[in-house]
Amino acid sequence: MSQSEYAYADTRNMNTIHIVFRREFGLLPDLVQSAAPGDEERAKVIADHIRLMSHTLRDHHHAEDEVLWPLLLARAPKEVDPVVHLAEGHHQRLEALLEETDARLAAWASSADGDARDALALALRELAVVLFEHMGLEERLVLPVVQRHIFTSEWEVMVQLSVAEIAPEDIPLIFGMALYEGDQEIVPEPLRADIVPVAPRVYADYAERLYGTRTPPRSTDVVFGAPHIGAAASA
Questions:
Q1: To the nearest 5 percent, what fractions of the chain are helix, strand and coil?
Q2: Do residues 25 and 53 lie in contact, with contact meaning Cβ atoms separated by under 8 Å?
Q3: Residue 159 · residue 179 · CB < 8 Å
Q4: Domain segments of the chain: what residues?
Q5: Is the pLDDT of residue 230 over 50?
Q6: 172 Cβ contact partners less than 8 Å away, ≥ 6 residues apart
Q7: Of 27, 78, 89, 129, which sits most exposed with the smallest number of CB within 10 A?
Q8: What is the pLDDT of residue 6?
Q9: All residues at 6 or more sequence positions from 112 whose CB lies less than 8 Å from its CB, including other chains
Q10: Is the CATH number 1.20.1090.10 carried by domain 3-166?
Q11: End-to-end CA distance of the chain
């Protein structure tokens, strides 16, 4: 059955998006720490990745703020309201942490200084902890309500709003990140024939430059917890 045949939203792709965020944000603190002080070339590669992921997360949250929360507050049972307000509060907290990360990133990217690097890694660790908490809340308490109260057409409006903000040159990479642990259903059907054959290779090339491997740790390999965000489970 295609997604368009569901009366209510099929939220499975949201789990795939969360997997991408868990993997990429979870690996960031140690990725930053791995850069040697003074290595400006390496700092630029990592800084560009942080900017891409921060922009993608902001777009994702903007779409939820504009479409999803107002619909749930208007339509779902009132006992759901505290959960929605908590999720909105997470977004505000995450935006503040993203702004702090932006400032720390600017200081490090311009100098590749060791102290600036460590301050950025700490900010990214705090960001990841809050982000993991937020995504867990959505998966446990929000998405089941969405599946009962939000129609597919409304869900698609939110998805399209988020995708519309991706720069055209980044589309194969973003979907390659998703396809690394997800299936082709994450790619909108009109783009599928063009994107699916190339996106995995685009991400593998990117991962090799960023992580030193074409097969970076998967989301399930990233240890959760403030002292461990960004550490591979096998480490």
A1: 75, 0, 20
A2: yes
A3: no
A4: 3-166
A5: no
A6: 195, 198, 199, 202
A7: 78
A8: 53
A9: 35, 37, 38, 39, 40, 42, 43
A10: no
A11: 41
List b or e across 3-20, with b for residues whose CB sees 16 or more CB atoms inside 10 angstroms: beeeeebbbebbebbbbb
Query: Are the beta carbons of 16 and 181 closer than 8 angstroms?
Result: yes
pLDDT tens for 99-124 read 999 999 999 999 999 999 999 999 99
Q: How far apart are CA 121 and CA 125, in angstroms?
A: 6
Tokens of 72: 């749930």
pLDDT tens across 112-164, in order?
999 999 999 999 999 999 999 999 999 999 999 999 999 999 999 999 999 88
d(CA 23, CA 177): 9
pTM equals 0.92
Q: Which amino acid is at 175?
A: F
3-state secondary structure of 207: helix
Q: What percent of the chain has pLDDT over 90?
A: 86
Pairwise CA distance, residues 64 & 88, whole Å: 9
